[in-house]
Specification:
There is one protein chain. The chain is mainly α and 171 residues long. Helix content is 66%, strand content 0%. The longest helix has 20 residues. The radius of gyration is 22 Å and the shape is elongated.
Length: 171
């Protein structure tokens, strides 16, 4: 599912069939709608639907320059959560409830997204934070800054918690 801001930017936007890709996609979608009842009973209906989504994504990217993820919904959501973690890792109050709320999903769904992964959502967040801190600690431009200030800047305000997590991650 695309974020509401992306959808609203495209809603009610006319896409004229003046380019080759627009003509192909529009014809394909019209054919699908004409034959929807026949197709929906077919065992390949899911594959056809996914192909249609890929075509729409290509059209959106071609027309607006916006890459749209149209993979399996779970994979797309997981990628969005990962991107959100990277973008918001500095928030010390970022927790599963806030992450789930930002994606309009339950906390249980959030944890289930990462159940097949090697790390939980909070382990991933901690790793992102620690990697960002480590990057700053090795950057000559931040050499004079206190370690605690750098850790706070990346969402780890408690120096004891930070030190323990840093040692566990990097030794």
């Amino acid at each position: 599912r695309q974020p509401d801001t992306e959808i609203s930017a495209l809603t009610a936007t006319t896409i004229a069939p003046d380019s080759g890709i627009a003509r192909v996609v529009i014809r394909h979608l019209l054919d699908l709608s004409r034959h929807a009842e026949e197709i929906e009973e077919d065992t390949s209906a899911q594959t056809i639907a996914e192909s249609a989504l890929d075509l729409v994504a290509a059209l959106v990217q071609s027309r607006f320059g916006l890459p749209w993820a149209v993979g399996h919904p779970t994979d797309v959501l997981r990628a969005r959560v990962r991107a959100y973690l990277a973008d918001h890792h500095a928030d010390p109050d970022l927790d599963p409830v806030a992450i789930a709320r930002a994606h309009s999903i339950s906390v249980r769904t959030l944890h289930n997204l990462f159940a097949q992964e090697e790390t939980s959502v909070m382990d991933r967040l901690r790793s992102i934070r620690l990697t960002a801190i480590r990057r700053e600690l090795t950057d000559p431009r931040t050499a004079g800054e206190p370690i605690g200030a750098i850790a706070r800047r990346h969402g780890l305000p408690n120096s004891t918690t930070f030190a323990r997590a840093y040692r566990a991650e990097f030794g």
